[in-house]
Amino acid sequence: MSPLNDPEALAVFQGALTAPVYDVAVESPLEAAPLLSTALGNRVWFKREDLQPVFSFKLRGAYTKMAKLSPEALERGVVAASAGNHAQGVALAAGKLGCRAVIVMPVTTPAIKVEAVRRLGGEVRLVGDSFDEAAAYARKAAEEEGLTSIPPYDDPDVIAGQGTVGMELLRQRPGGWTRSSCRWAAAGSSRGSPPASSGCSPPSGSSGWSRRIPTAWPRPWRPGTP
To answer: The domain 58-149: what is its CATH number?
Structure first.
């Protein structure tokens, strides 16, 4: 089955188009890597998510999930298990939304990461020698303390937030939007039309937007070309 025939997958595409990530994140640049491109014989680009406030894309998913919580859930607070980037994303999002964030980290977590979470306002609890032990504690804390669990993955809202990286890549790709990328993006909109900021237009003579993912791959790269 095509992902776009799956209601859950389509909801994630739609969520990526409307995720409020820019409350906390920036649209990171896409930078060419000419030396690496030459070495590999292909076009290599870096999506500079290291320029985000927490130096990772993880805040996108955490904030998207947390921004959808009810006022009552935010009042109770959230909990997450993480050894690093997700923890900082949740702590930053909690600060933005004004809620409590309990971050469960293994005792083996480097001190620099623990302190980074604390600086962002997270309530750190060091539990267990592994992520699995920390995660088990976080699940128990969620149940006993009425906290909302914020997973690092495998959650539609988190996936939608992380998916905004893909939407940016489509906007930033050399040459801008193509008909293929426009069709891909339109498949995620609720009315089958492209994002207002994309500058896309339907192919000439088309009665609507094709709801399919493009199969074309970028052309082979040659030294001296963009």
So the answer is: 3.40.50.1100
* Strand, coil or helix: 149: strand
Query: At 54, phi and psi to the nearest 5?
Result: -110, 15
Give 1-35 pLDDT, tens digit per residue.
Answer: 666 678 888 888 889 999 999 999 999 999 999 99
Convert 60-125 into a string of H (helix), E (strand) and C (coil). Answer: HHHHHHHHCCCHHHHHHCEEEECCCHHHHHHHHHHHHHCCCEEEEECCCCCHHHHHHHHHCCCEEE
Which residues, at least 6 apart from 53, have a Cβ–Cβ distance to it below 8 Å?
24, 25, 26, 59, 92
Residue ranges matching CATH 3.40.50.1100 in the chain: 58-149
The predicted structure's pLDDT at residue 86: 97
pTM of the model: 0.77
The rounded Cα 205 to chain-centroid distance in angstroms is: 35
Q: Which stretches of the chain are DSSP H helices?
A: 7-18, 34-40, 58-67, 71-76, 85-97, 111-119, 131-145, 156-172, 179-186
What are the structure tokens assigned to 61, written together?
């998913």
Q: Which of 126, 57, 127, 125 is nearest to 92 (CA)?
A: 57
Give the pLDDT band (50/70/90) at residue 223. Answer: very low
Give residue-wise pLDDT tens across range 93-131: 999 999 999 999 999 999 999 999 999 999 999 999 999
**Within 10 A of 143 (CB to CB), how many other CB atoms are there?**
11
